[in-house]
Amino acid sequence: NQSVTNDYVFYGTIKELKENLSDMEYNILSLHLFSELTFKEISSKLNMKESSVKTLYFRTIKKSRKLLERR
Q: What is residue 34's three-state secondary structure?
């Protein structure tokens, strides 16, 4: 079943990211992508500057792409 295969691939990708990102990187990434919080909301939730959240998010996206390209 294609749906099961896609779910398995997605789960493996998320697991790999979680294993290779710091807790803060993973938290910011998941809050923005999965919880759909804005950078402002994330900064408030994590007690960080919004600019710091944005910087860390975009660095994490770049790092994640490199991790996934190595597969």
A: coil
